[in-house]
UniProtKB/TrEMBL annotation:
Organism of provenance: Aegilops tauschii subsp. strangulata (Goatgrass)
Family note: Belongs to the PIGL family.
InterPro entries: GlcNAc_PI_deacetylase-related, LmbE-like_dom_sf
GO cellular component: endoplasmic reticulum; membrane
Gene Ontology molecular function: N-acetylglucosaminylphosphatidylinositol deacetylase activity
Protein name (Swiss-Prot/TrEMBL): N-acetylglucosaminylphosphatidylinositol deacetylase
Record keyword Signal present: yes
Length: 248
């Protein structure tokens, strides 16, 4: 029986190595399936103005770095709207600066980053964010930056954080009320626990699901994991082993 277990372990290690090689095989970020239909130029504009809508500082590094790197590799202009300071632990000002530092690492100019501190949008698991207010504040940035594309959380919010989920519903409300229909929106699909922590191996399943889905769905491959680490390293206040409060 021992040789069977050894064979299974060797197979798992080989699969992981092949999967990692698949991810790192390209010098630039890419999508699966490859498709020119994913964020093509709009009219005479070769690039898009993309608004990444977040709940807290560090969301951009923890969840959206592959998306940011892919979009920038295609020449699109990335703007960031963070709905709160992430002040659940009283570190709001620190976390705000960390967000600017992380965005600098990701080559997003400071003038294209907005961090809000609204009384009704405070960080916390038990804080209920008003969807109408979220839609209103997002529209202000859309008009300011001439945004044509939004990227944000899906209805589960990746980690399940209520603030993430409220941001999703706020964007849905904005899209529903936007009668001009001139805003395109994409959401980051939440994964189950097994897929989330399967690492490089999940690229095969993600590729299959993206290719066979009846909805438009793409797997954006981060071929430079070190860039994600560098961006996340900017959020030094969040590098702790245990949390005593309910924050992101």
């Amino acid at each position: 029986m021992a040789w069977i277990w050894m064979l299974l372990v060797a197979g798992a290690v080989l699969l992981w190595a092949v999967s990692l090689g698949r991810i790192l095989s390209s010098p630039t970020p890419y999508s699966l399936p490859p498709s020119p239909r994913f964020l093509p130029p709009l009219g005479d504009r070769r690039s898009r103005n993309v608004l990444l809508v977040l709940a807290h500082p560090d969301d951009e590094s923890m969840f959206f770095t592959p998306t940011i790197l892919f979009l920038k590799s295609k020449g699109h202009s990335i703007h960031v709207l963070c709905m709160s300071l992430g002040n659940a632990d009283g570190l709001g000002d620190t976390r705000k600066q960390e967000l600017y530092d992380a965005c600098a690492t990701l080559k997003i100019p400071a003038e294209q980053v907005a961090v809000l501190d609204h009384q009704k949008l405070q960080d916390g698991f038990h804080e209920k964010w008003d969807h109408g207010l979220l839609a209103e504040l997002t529209m202000e940035q859309i008009q300011l930056w001439d945004i044509d594309t939004i990227v944000t959380f899906d209805s589960y919010g990746v980690s399940g954080h209520p603030n993430h989920r409220d941001v999703h519903h706020g964007i849905c409300k904005l899209l529903h009320e936007n009668q001009r229909g001139n805003i395109e929106a994409w959401e980051l699909v939440s994964l189950n626990m097994f897929r989330k922590y399967s690492g490089a191996v999940d690229i095969w399943l993600s590729s299959l699901i993206s290719s066979s889905s009846k909805q438009l769905m793409y797997c954006l491959v981060n071929c430079s994991p070190s860039r994600t680490f560098e961006a996340m390293a900017a959020h030094r206040s969040q590098w702790v082993c245990a949390r005593t409060s309910e924050t992101n």
